[in-house]
């Protein structure tokens, strides 16, 4: 089998030689001529039954060749039979919940916190008609009922980089399929399906696209589950635009190099942050004590390039003091991004729940990019060392209860 970098460059491009092109064509057709309407009907029926391909795409909500190339490439990188792409990571999460619960007559989900704030909010909102029980990774088995259709896990978790043993959670779930959100690790560092995950989910908006210019999601799984996901995608219309499919497919080619380079800088930044007087705790799988279960090497091939740290000063003041680093949500872009989870990505998670699962008010999440590591460090060090920060007594008082959030201090 080809190596990771080779697969990243060549995956999904098998048909290009026959087409006589070098770059994958972007097929923007919304409809496809079907002179033989009976044959068109058969193709439509195949898609309605969950097929990955048919004689004609018929209509762009059913199939798109550009998106299909990205799906084939991602499935190869994750080591699954197939993959199904969606218009966003949240559309992908929604489709997995629908396919694993409603389609199978189930209405209960077990989820391990912390999760991406949007996923947490979707599951607790009841919007999809499911009830959610939150459990710690080692108590999943106790939360399973005959009505449970899905277990949701994220590792490394957003935003605090908690690690969970996928195989242990899969064992606790028994016959219930486990979805692992692999957005932080990417297929470069972790392949959850190899540890028993039924669904491997990515927000392609992050590392897969990699340049902050495309929104998308994808789920890697076996052919049967992929068929159900395609059926859901057809009826809900949660499709990925072909241009998004093209950009994410192109992003895969450089994914291993980007992840390796950003990770190298993240290890160094984490080490220096841990020694910085203005910093409390630093969360990164590379640091001593961050991996008590010994998952690095066994499940996770590297610590990744996202880290989190608590500040002794008001975190929003630290962000305001930065110059180079982009103050923005999202992650996995070429530029380094920083955000305040309690105020932004995890704002809709109740603060008591946030605190209980290790997302304190003064936590900042840093997605290390591809800039020179010394430039990233200089920017961080300067923002953390500003004098007016360290004498911000108002914040010290406020942090003893719940740091008040207002639109003002975001
Ligand atoms: C961003 C993100 C999502 C949601 O993806 P969108 O593309 O923004 O819809 C889901 N899970 C994780 C871990 C994320 O970081």
From TrEMBL:
Necessary cofactors: pyridoxal 5'-phosphate
EC annotation from Swiss-Prot or TrEMBL: 4.4.1.2
GO molecular function annotations of the record: cystathionine gamma-lyase activity; homocysteine desulfhydrase activity; methionine gamma-lyase activity; pyridoxal phosphate binding
Record keyword Lyase present: yes
Enzyme class, spelled out: lyase
SUPFAM superfamilies named in the record: PLP-dependent transferases
One Pfam match: Cys_Met_Meta_PP
InterPro entries recorded: Cys/Met-Metab_PyrdxlP-dep_enz (IPR000277), PyrdxlP-dep_Trfase (IPR015424), PyrdxlP-dep_Trfase_major (IPR015421), PyrdxlP-dep_Trfase_small (IPR015422)
N6-(pyridoxal phosphate)lysine PTM positions: 206
GO cellular component terms, A-Z: cytoplasm
This protein's UniProt keywords: Lyase, Pyridoxal phosphate
Protein family per UniProt: Belongs to the trans-sulfuration enzymes family.
PANTHER family hit by this protein: CYSTATHIONINE GAMMA-LYASE-RELATED, TRANS-SULFURATION ENZYME FAMILY MEMBER
Official protein name in the record: homocysteine desulfhydrase
Lineage, opening ranks: Bacteria, Bacillati, Actinomycetota, Actinomycetes, Pseudonocardiales
